[in-house]
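User: Just a sanity check before I run the rest of the batch. Below are the structure tokens for the first item. I only need the designed sequence back.
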């Protein structure tokens, strides 16, 4: 039996990403987001949602670019901090002891220490209530070699990404359950 708990955010968990931007003066900045995800395969695109009053929002609109960085669990404090402080009056890279790396294809800084970074060119901005949804075409995806499997795909256990329960807690990934496109075969009708 399910219970109606009202208008709550019911997708659990959400990914945790740290978005990199440059402000109008070229200062690199970070913002931690849980409203993020892949939104298109071709062209490869990611979406992020940011409140209009956030410092990073203006930077994305001005530069038309951003990076999406996937932090590992060992950077929990730095990730949490990047979502708490404002880049308007803090140098988040310096305070978190993180290294800003200029993207090669997008006008946005990436985080050297995080295992995955994507350079994105802004393609769409849609007003959605309290947030604007930004869609960015992924121009390049940089992945630390030590987290790559022989197939060339990242190993989730080595990446060790953070996940978030909206409004409350961070978690790590759990155990591998199965390969995709296998368990459902027994339910397929010929």
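Assistant: Here's the designed sequence for the first item:
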């Amino acid at each position: 039996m399910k219970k109606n708990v009202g208008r709550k955010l019911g997708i659990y968990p959400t990914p945790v990403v740290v978005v990199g931007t440059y402000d109008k003066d070229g200062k690199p900045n970070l913002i931690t987001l849980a409203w993020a995800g892949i939104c298109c395969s071709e062209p490869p695109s990611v979406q992020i949602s940011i409140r209009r009053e956030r410092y990073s929002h203006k930077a994305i609109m001005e530069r038309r670019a951003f990076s999406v960085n996937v932090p590992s669990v060992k950077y929990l404090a730095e990730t949490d901090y990047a979502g708490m402080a404002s880049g308007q009056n803090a140098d988040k890279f310096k305070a978190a002891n993180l290294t800003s790396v200029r993207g090669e294809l997008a006008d946005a800084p990436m985080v050297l220490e995080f295992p995955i970074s994507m350079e994105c060119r802004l393609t769409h901005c849609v007003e959605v209530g309290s947030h604007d949804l930004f869609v960015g075409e992924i121009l390049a995806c940089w992945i630390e070699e030590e987290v790559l499997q022989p197939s060339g795909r990242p190993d989730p256990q080595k990446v060790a990404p953070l996940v978030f329960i909206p409004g409350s807690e961070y978690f790590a990934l759990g155990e591998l359950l199965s390969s995709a496109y296998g368990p459902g075969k027994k339910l397929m009708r010929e």
